[in-house]
Structures are given as structure tokens and as C-alpha cells.
Amino acid sequence: MPLLLSSCKDYTAFDHTAILIDEKTKLSSLGISKAVLDDAQRFFNDKVNHVYRQQYEGKTLSIVKIDSSKEEFKTLEAARKAGFGINRFFNSLKVNEASVYSVARKPKATLAFIEGIALSNYDFLKYKTKDKTEKSLATLQVDARSADKKALDEIQKLTEANFFSRTLVNEPLSFLTATQLSKEISEAGKRYGFSVQVFDKKKIEALKMGGLLAVNKGSVDPPTFTILEYKPSRKKNKKPIVLVGKGVVYDTGGLSLKPTPNGMDMMKCDMGGAAAVAGIFAAVAQLKLPVHIVGLIPATDNRPGMNAYVPGDVVEMMSGLNVEMLNADAEGRMILADALHYAKQYEPELVLDFATLTGAAKAAIGSKAAVYMGTASDAVKKAMVRSSENTYERIVEFPLWDEYGEMIKSDIADIKNIGGAEAGAITAGKFLEHFVSYPWLHFDIAGPAYLMAEDGYRGKYGTAVGVRLVVDFLKNY
Asked: What would the pLDDT profile of 361-414 be if each residue is shown by its tens digit?
């Protein structure tokens, strides 16, 4: 469960405390004893990004010093990372409650510090029957002089949405089939306040969603197409913003079978785009943001069984375009294409799609950022980059030049679903571009969506990348 963030009048009333300071803070202003003050001054000695810690009589005092002289987005990330360290310390003591006080000059740094503590408190222990060590920290008391209740409430709700998204990614296929994914989202809609409609296979067939149906041919489990909507009475946008998420709940590669290990064994994460969209809705609805948004999640697993489609097949998409399928492991673009075409009926102001789409994106920039590209205006792109800095969910733009479109031309159909060994992330984007007719951005989150080693407050395995990014973008839309 997410941390309960509460406001307190006096942080010194609690046994375990963390104080956030910056390079300009005078330690003498903290009201600590002379012995501790002298010791802390010797420890810091003008160093930044360090933690001084004092333990006595079962109590602890941690003083965290960050450098606020750098670019703001770097200062905020340093504060979040410091929050991760403090969370780990509090949980190592197995304390249930702790307090935070900040005298850092930048209020945003204080909030980032609290956010880092909160985001670090995630557990996924559902399938543990022994060695089930849960995080003990349940409540964080924040001194009222450091942050107001509204800001704390926002962090708590955003953290809950982030954890919901992470858990969806971390669930195995043995539980999270396409049908179960739609059920989890439906329950979240009731819990958080957004509407959900689920199309079953019969409806998907009636709509002639050829890409989704083709990928599903190898599975014994049916596909789903889930529509989410949040429409407040007062909204900033005249037409909806549509969010599309790839929902491949498990990807074997189909008949173009992936290798194992380090290929297929982590492919329960291939619905990271769907999880991001679900998490965004959970946050936006809780925060009651004045934006009208629609979510579209095509979902299936990708297997080589049953009557699986084969390389060389031609698939008629929902749009009517014929696609020569040459690689069954390039399935995400097949199901996204139908969703992007379906989005046209909303006459959207903007469409954002999220997908763990290509190994090429991860190979190009690793796990530290997502690749993005699209036809949205420069103003939208600049706003998204600002949000990527605010949240440190960084993005790197790739080009959508016409020359890359030449690489997916087919000799026997309109286009083919792969473009060759080079520029794989871009040719995937060019494929999707064939199905859009509105301002659009595509986010390939293959790198940062699922991590095999812990990365601070982002944790290990599912990271919920995209949730904080888009919520920040929509807040400032």
C-alpha cells in the first residue's frame, strides 16, 4: 500500500526524522543540540548530496543535504534519490512511522524528496509464501511548514496510481490474461472514478480489427479491447485527448519465437503501455484534473499455437490497409494500428500511444529514457519535454523522415510490419503513422518500462514509466 502522508505541527515529536537542507542552509537554524550541530558541521564540510545520521536511545536523526545550485530538474531528481535512501533507512529500522522536515530553499525540492520516499515504498509480495518481508513504513508525517496538505494529497494519489500500474506489469500471465487485464481496469474505474467499456472477441470481430485478431490467432485465450473515459463537467480541452496502450499480456514472439533467457522470460511486461494508460487514468480521476481523456487498450497474448498467423501472411487491418506480416514478433504495432484507427472517431485533439515496442529503442538509448516521435505540434513536443524534465521520465525524439517509410513498403501488400535490421524503432513508428490522421506522439518505452535491477525509487521490474510524465503534461495542458 502507498504511504499515508500526513501533516504534523512538530516533526520533533517523532522518534525517526529526516531533515532536508541545501548548500545555503545554516545548520545552526535547525534547533539541534550543540554536540550534534558540531558533529554535523564536521561531517558535511561543504559537501553536498550527503546524509548525516545520528542515532541515540532508539531514535534517529538524518540530515540530507542536496545541491540546489544546478538546473532545477537535476536538483529535483537528486532530492528524489535522497528520498529513496531515507525510505530504505527507515524500513531497515522496521519503523512504522517517521517524520520529515525541510528547510531547502526550493519548495519543489521538498516535494520531490517526499515523492522519492513515497515512490520507494512499493512491494509486490502477492506470490510470496515465505521470506515475505514487507516494508514496515506506513505513515510519513510531514511538518506543516514544509508542505501543505493539498500537495501531500497529490503525491499520495499519484503514488497510488503509479503502484497500480507497476502491479499490473508485475503480474504473471497465469493471472493477468487479456480478460483479467480488462477486469482489473474495470475495477479501477469503479475505485477511482472513470468509466470503462470492454469489447469481447465477438465485438472485435464485428469491428474487423484485423491486427488484433491476427495476433490472437495463436492463443487459446480471447482478446479484449478496453475503452476508458474520464470526462469532467469542466474541462480545458474541446476535443478529447486519446491515450493508447499496447496490451500484449505475454509475448513469446509468436512463430518468430523469442530466445530464452533474456528474451522471452520477462515478456509479461509487454503490456507496460496498457499499464501506463491505466495508471494515468487512476491518477487523473483521483486528482480531478480538468481534462477530457479517452483510453484505448487492445489486449492479447502472442503465442505460436492454435492457428497462429505465419510470416508471409497478409492481414487486412481495421482501416482497410493490407499488411504483409514478415515477423510475428513485431506484433505490438499490429494491435496498436487498429486502436489508432479506432481513435479517429473521437476527432481527438491529441493522441499519445505507449508501447514496449522495439528492442531497437532500448539498444539505442538504454533504460534511462523512452524514445518518442510523431506529428504533434512543436508546442506540444516542448511541453512534453518540460514534463519529462519535471518528472525525470526522460524522452528522446527520433525522426519520422519519409525515407524511413520506404523501408516498410511491401511488394505484395500496402506495407509490411518490419523494415529490416536498421532503424527498427523508427520504422515501427512509420508503420503506426499509416493509421493516424490527427496530432500524435508515439512513445516506445521498451527501455525504462521494466528493469532487471533496482534503480532507486523506480524500483525493480515494473516502473510505471509514463504515468508521472503524462499526468504532469495534463496538469499543465
From this structure: 999 999 999 999 999 999 999 999 999 999 999 999 999 999 999 999 999 999
Residues whose CB is less than 8 angstroms from the CB of residue 38 and which lie 6 or more positions away in sequence, other chains included: none
* pLDDT at residue 10 greater than cutoff 80: yes
Percentages (nearest 5) of helix, strand, coil residues in the chain: 40, 20, 40
Q: Which SS3 state, helix, strand or coil, does residue 30 take?
A: helix
Instruction: Give the pairing of strands 395-397 and 195-199.
Output: unpaired
Domains and CATH numbers, the chain: 4-145 (3.40.220.10), 158-475 (3.40.630.10)
Can you give the pTM of this predicted structure? 0.97
Which whole number is the average pLDDT over 159-181?
Answer: 98
Task: Say if CB 36 and CB 61 are below 8 A apart.
Answer: yes
Q: What is the DSSP string of 175-203?
A: T--HHHHHHHHHHHHHHHT-EEEEE-HHH
Task: Please answer whether residues 474 and 154 qualify as being in contact, where contact means their C-beta atoms are separated by less than 8 angstroms.
Answer: no
Q: Chain-centre distance of CA 365, in angstroms?
A: 17
- Cβ neighbours of 198 (radius 10 Å): 18
Q: Which residues of 7-20 are buried (b: 16+ CB within 10 A; e: fewer)?
A: bbeebeebebbbbb
Pull the grid cell for residue 128. Answer: 510470496
358, three cell numbers: 522495439
The set of catalytic residues is: 258, 333
Confidence band of 9 (pLDDT split at 50, 70, 90): very high
Say what the pLDDT of residue 46 is. Answer: 64
What does the alpha-carbon distance between residue 207 and residue 205 come to, in Å, rounded to a whole number?
Answer: 5
- 49: pLDDT strictly greater than 90: no
What is the full DSSP assignment across 133-165? ------EEEEETTT--HHHHHHHHHHHHHHHHH
Using the Cα atoms of residue 201, residue 184, residue 283 and residue 192 in order, give the sign of their dihedral.
Answer: positive
Give yes or no for residue 232 having a pLDDT over 90: yes
CA distances from 346 to 362, 365, 373, 381 (A): 32, 34, 22, 21
Lowest mean per-residue pLDDT among 104-108, 114-118, 211-215, 292-296: 104-108
pLDDT of residue 133: 86
3-state SS, one letter per residue, for 52-108:
EEEEECCEEEEEEEECCCCCHHHHHHHHHHHHHHHHHHHHHCCCCEEEEEECCCCHH
Give φ, ψ of 142 to 5 degrees. Answer: -110, 125
Whole-Å CA distances, 375 to 97, 422, 434: 48, 22, 12
DSSP code of 352?
E
Give dist(CA 308, CA 267) in Å, integer: 18
**Which of residues 154 and 56 earns the better pLDDT score?**
154
Maximum Cα–Cα distance across the chain: 81
Is residue 417 within 8 Å of 215, Cβ to Cβ?
no
